Amino acid sequence: MGSVSNQQFAGGCAKAPEEAPEEAPEDAARAAEEPQLLHGAGICKWFNVRMGFGFLSMTARAGVALDPPVDVFVHQSKLHMEGFRSLKEGEAVEFTFKKSAKGLESIRVTGPGGVFCIGSERRPKGKNVQKRRSKGDRTQMEVDACFMRRMPSTFDHIHHYLSYVFQLKANETKLVAGPMPKHIAFIMDGNRRYAKKCQVERQEGHSQGFNKLAETLRWCLNLGILEVTVYAFSIENFKRSKSEVDGLMDLAREKFSRLMEEQCFLNICFAYTSRHEISNAVREMAWGVEQGLLDPSDVSESLLDKCLYTNHSPHPDILIRTSGEVRLSDFLLWQTSHSCLVFQPVLWPEYTFWNLCEAILQFQMNHSMLQQKARDVYAEERKRQQLERDQAAVTEQLLQEGLPASGDPQLRRTRLHKLSARREERVQGFLQALELKRADWLAHLGTAST
């Protein structure tokens, strides 16, 4: 945005502007660090008159429509209006705002075209207004009733404000109570119930669910969680009505391209069940044995893990399911055996940053048991079992060659090393062949769909 220089006036005559001094390097560096002012438009989402702050719902930024809208914090001191400073919910506004690591904050808020904000009306005052009685003059029942009337809106606003503050400080504090997860999986449940609750079409519920996913990805990115896996569509979902399935497919094509713009690594499980994934991994190992790429003794839990669709990703640290359902619904059964399972009652389109923080805190409280103990112990046990199998194979080789099974220790160590190296070579060759096989299948699928 261009700036307009102010001329200084003395005695009604404008002074010629003096030549500006050369800007010091430290001043230039400071100016470069200052957040750039941006332009937005939207409506007042809510405004708390007593607390003097609220949130704007930005529907357009620099003339470009935003879907979904983005929240911008607003304080009453930033409102361009006469007299009492308070916005009316749903009021159209235009504003400048700054963007920094702390979030979005409005700088100057006006009505459309730069006019004064309309604002809400002040509480009327005068002789005819009934004077409020002090607490001492009210019965306990009246006090309780007054508190219950104020409680929903006041507590909702406080909850929203605390969510905002927590979100602003997340980058700085990194939830210091414990380590941060690197990978979170979501079962995004509750879209249809949300649609029924709001008395809208099911398709609208699914659309709001996709919008919530985009928002959740931004939260994860701000917290340093760079990988997210979501259960977008189960194989079992094909049993739903044709109109709903077709609508979901159209919506997926429309929304996934936008989701790809997020900087988080997103795994989308579509037309997926965990049982199908595991059985497919077993079939692929059997194919490797048939092709002579593997020996039957190479088949193990570790190799099956590498044959899963998620083989390039670490196992999720947290699995979150919304809507209050307490089951995994055939999702990542193998990968979440040592994950922190969090079941939350909120419907997915109503999921908040505060819900995400609650899940992360649960993970942190159980991190020692989940990560440092269970996974490490299980990994050591798998190594021990593999070593026992290798030692049995070496013993069999020595006996077949007429050598004593418990003979030269150096010979046994050499044989063990060679056995392990050959197995690793076979496994890597098999995995490379498997990648090529899958790539060919995907290429054929893409050709058939066009």
Q: Secondary-structure blueprint of this entry?
A:
Elements: E1 9-10, E2 13-14, H1 25-33, E3 37-48, E4 53-61, E5 64-75, E6 92-100, E7 103-110, H2 140-173, E8 183-187, H3 191-198, H4 202-222, E9 227-234, H5 242-259, E10 265-272, H6 274-290, H7 301-307, E11 318-321, E12 340-343, H8 353-365, H9 367-400, H10 409-449
Parallel strand pairs: 8-9, 8-11, 9-10, 11-12
Antiparallel strand pairs: 1-2, 3-4, 3-6, 4-5, 6-7
Question: Could you explain how this protein is built, in words?
Answer:
It is built from ten helices and twelve strands. It is α/β, with parallel strands linked by helices and 450 residues long. The protein has a five-stranded antiparallel sheet with strand order 5-4-3-6-7.
Strands side by side in the biggest sheet: 5-4-3-6-7
Which range best describes the helical content: under 10%, 10-25%, 25-40%, 40-55%, 55-70% or over 70%?
40-55%
**Class from helix and strand fractions:** alpha/beta
Mean pLDDT, all residues: 78
Q: What is the end-to-end distance?
A: 47 Å
Shape verdict: elongated
Query: What is the number of strand segments?
Result: 12
Rg (C-alpha, Å): 31 Å
User: How large is the share of residues in beta strands?
Assistant: 15-25%
| Residue windows where pLDDT falls under 50 for at least 5 positions | 1-26, 28-33, 124-154
Q: Provide a count of the helices.
A: 10
Order of helices and strands: EEHEEEEEHEHHEHEHHEEHHH
- Largest sheet, described in full? 5 strands, antiparallel
